[in-house]
Amino acid sequence: GRDLICIQSMDGMLMLFEQESYAFGRFLPGFLLPGPLTYSSRTDSFITVSSCRQVESYKYQVLAFATDADERQETEQQKLGSGKRLVVDWVLNIGEQALDICVVSFNQAVSSVFVLGERNFFCLKDNGQIRFMKKLDCSPSCFLPYCSVTEGTINTLVGNHSNMLHVYQDVTLKWAAQLPHIPVSVKVANLQDLRGVIVTLSDSGHLQCSYLGTDPSLFQAPKIESREINYEEIDAEMKQLQKIIKEATKTQDILPKSESERELIVIAEVSPELDAESQAIDSEVKAEAVPSVTVKITIQSRVTAQKPKLAVCVEAPLALSCDQFDFDDLEPDASETVVLSVFLKGNCLPPELEGDCVASYSTPTELNPEGIIKVAQCKFRLPLRLICLPTQPSKTANHKLTIDTNKPPVSFLTIFPDFADQSEEDQSNALGFQFLTGSKITLLASKTSQRYRIQSDQLEDLWLITKELTLRLKEHFKKQNCKDFTCSFSGSIPLQEYFELIDRHFELRLNAEKLKEMLSERAVQFRAIERRLLTRFKDKTPAPLQHLDTLLEGTFREVIALADAAEENQANVFQAFMKLKSATHLVVMLIGLWQKLSADQIAVLEATFLPLAQDTDDLGWEETVDAAISYLLRTCLSKSSKEQALTLTSELCIPKDTSRLKKHITLLCERLAKGGRLSLSTETTTPQTAGMPGGCATIPESDLEEGTVVPGTGATFTNHKHITKQKSKP
Asked: Which of 17, 278, 296, 411 could bridge 5 with an S-S bond, Cβ 3.0-4.6 Å?
């Protein structure tokens, strides 16, 4: 009828209390760091795992009569006279640190001691002998043995760092379930009428109650009374059901509705001014201040919308203060409004200053009370001031572009009032921009001709300013009811500089593959050394280590260094891909202005050059774009049926180099210059190429054998794959 408490201290002392009274304290022999500790009532002993990676059992009776901890500093004679030496009951070497110990005793199973290690869990008898052990595939975080329905077996719940919960019956895996977090503790509870609830606790303090399995259906169909069939009623019921099916399958509910007929409308409003107090958090930009802008998103519902959810997305490296929102059910003519902030998080420029809002909801119907899931979306445009500041124009630059228009030049004080100082007359035809990442861009307007020049030291930095210029010019002339305003480009397309960005991105991708292979080799070597060391340690007559410990430490340092290098290379790949996307947007825009392509043709060109949101290990930009361009060269841009009949490879893989991709891009520009037009309609394709290819083969470059100059470009290709740069016309 008394409460006995055992407390283990950090210095290896076991303090025992009877109720509130201190009974005695004992130091465990050979102690270094505390391990898990439990009490076995069956053997009246304390079981723990020492720093020697051994499971040790100490009888309570031995602890009670052993030397008192308070007398540890006394002389040897006094220690011998004060009690017996503390002797361990039994020891088992498990060769790894333990995370937890549990003693279980059920009616249908013998009493057992369960030990959860770093890679295995062990089931021991009361005398320390191994009953069974199980090697785990993932690093465990917690476990719980519990009663099994099969006699003679014990079930064990094991949580791991892969967000998984495994159910073992002895050593057999019976079930695996996914968890939303890494569990640090797991228990089984009975909550009201619900039995077998799995309660897990995460390292961040989230408590979750989960239910494994389903309730059995207790419904039994009633016996059907024998009665005569009324065919007239069945016929009427069939007609009614067919009418309902016909109403439910009308195409008018599937096709997009106009703005006035939509059931749910998403409206995004971007604040015209930057936030007075920036909401940027964890930004990697090295600027003095990283601004943010507020976006107000409103959801308006004309019907009953069940479980509406809102997701907001912006192009990396831009980031949001919050990107997911859940709402309660919306009644007809109800609305919900949320406010969030957008800021530049990564230390590179985004390829687009746009964002997407997607709202998903469900509307109940007669046949489906839970509702049919529908989606509404809208786009919003972010201000250039979010990533850019005004600065002094620069006279020199490595890269220059000239955009021609058919209207007189407009003062920058008019179209860039947020950047130009109204009191400075010089800024009417010369304006400087500086991105938060440090690069500078200069915008010039000709006083005599209808031209604008954009210049910068980096090709990719020209894109955002060029796009912003064309958009603001179109908006300016649209307000003046001028409908014939057009932009054009007559200079040379900077393919040579564009190819350098492609080579840089491809080189980093190859580096990533090399680092991955080297890291795999070092990991195999590390595990092999570990196995040899473990064999030496387990041997009863251990042999010399022969510097295996030094080799293990050196290999460990190499693994860490390679992992750091791979992580750094991954960040460089991301930045290179962002630069490549910006340059690709610029090249697509210049090709469209150069050849005066329609909106549909520009859309085809963008889908060809910008197929991926980001690179992955399995699929990269180079092979995807090469396959897409090859498809266009064989269909709408083909010169003969011989090209259309070329065989296609079945899969995409990383190429050896970028020479074929460069040739295909050059050939695409050449055929567009000769009058080719982009189209994906089946009328321009042959039956052999009507489907999109999974890969690409080399296009016969008959026109490139002796060296081809693409009209409007500054790149020449020869049969030696040597790139030369022509002097552009002044």
From this structure: 17
Neighbouring CB atoms inside 10 A of 469's CB total 20
For residues 668 and 632, give the distance between their C-alpha atoms in angstroms, rounded to a whole number.
Answer: 8
* Domain regions of the chain by residue span: 5-68+85-210, 264-384, 388-472, 495-674
Q: How far apart are CA 255 and CA 249, in angstroms?
A: 12
What is the H or E stretch that residue 196 is in? strand 194-202
How far apart are alpha carbons 11 and 23 in whole angstroms?
18
Predicted confidence at residue 370, as pLDDT, reads 73
Longest CA–CA span in the chain (Å) reads 111
Q: Are 293 and 302 within 8 A, CB to CB?
A: no
The predicted pLDDT at position 78 comes to 40
Which residues neighbour 611 within 8 Å (Cβ) at sequence distance 6 or greater? 621, 624, 625, 628
3-class state of residue 434 by DSSP: strand
- pLDDT confidence of residue 434: 92
DSSP, collapsed to helix, strand or coil, labels residue 235 as helix
**Sign of the CA dihedral running 55, 96, 544, 528:** positive
| H or E segment to which residue 559 belongs | helix 548-595
Can you state the angle between helices 548-595 and 599-609, rounded to 10 degrees?
Answer: 170
Q: Say what angle helices 462-479 and 548-595 make with each other, to 10 degrees.
A: 30
How far is it, in rounded angstroms, from Cα 316 to Cα 320? Answer: 10
Segments in the chain below pLDDT 50: 72-83, 682-730
Sign of the alpha-carbon dihedral angle for 257, 259, 262, 268: positive
Side chain identity, residue 382: L
Contact residues for 602 (Cβ-Cβ < 8 A; gap 6+) = 588, 592
Q: Give the separation between CA 578 and CA 504, rounded to whole angstroms.
A: 12
Q: What CA–CA distance (Å, rounded) separates 256 from 263? A: 11
> Cα–Cα distance between 9 and 37 in angstroms, integer?
11
Superfamily of domain 264-384 in CATH is: Immunoglobulins (2.60.40.10)
* Distance, CA of 179 to CA of 160 (rounded, Å): 10
d(CA 383, CA 344): 12
- Please answer whether residues 489 and 593 qualify as being in contact, where contact means their C-beta atoms are separated by less than 8 angstroms: yes
Task: Work out the number of other CB atoms within 10 angstroms of the CB of residue 228.
Answer: 5
Query: Who's near 96: CB < 8 A, 6+ residues apart?
Result: 53, 117, 118, 119, 120
* % pLDDT > 70, the chain: 84
Task: Answer for the pair 352, 380: CB distance below 8 angstroms, yes or no.
Answer: no
Spatial contact of 36 and 22, defined as CB atoms under 8 Å apart: no
Q: 457, 440 in Cβ contact below 8 A?
A: yes
Report domain 5-68+85-210's class: mainly beta
Q: Which of 440, 431, 432, 382 is nearest to 409 (CA)?
A: 431
Per the CB < 8 A criterion, the answer to whether 379 and 353 are in contact is no
CA angle 18, 20, 24 (to 5 degrees): 50
Residue 195 Cα distances to 145, 169, 191, 213, 296, angstroms = 16, 19, 6, 11, 46
> For residue 34, which of 47, 50, 46 has the smallest C-alpha distance?
50
State how far the Cα of 675 lies from the Cα of 601, in Å rounded to an integer. 13
For the chain, how far is it from start to end, CA to CA, in angstroms? 102
Return the pLDDT at 251: 53
What fold is seen in the domain 388-472?
TATA-Binding Protein (3.30.310)
For residue 107, the tally of other CB atoms under 10 A from its CB is: 6
* Residue-level pLDDT at 352: 92
Asked if 178 and 164 count as a contact pair (C-beta separation under 8 A), the reply is yes
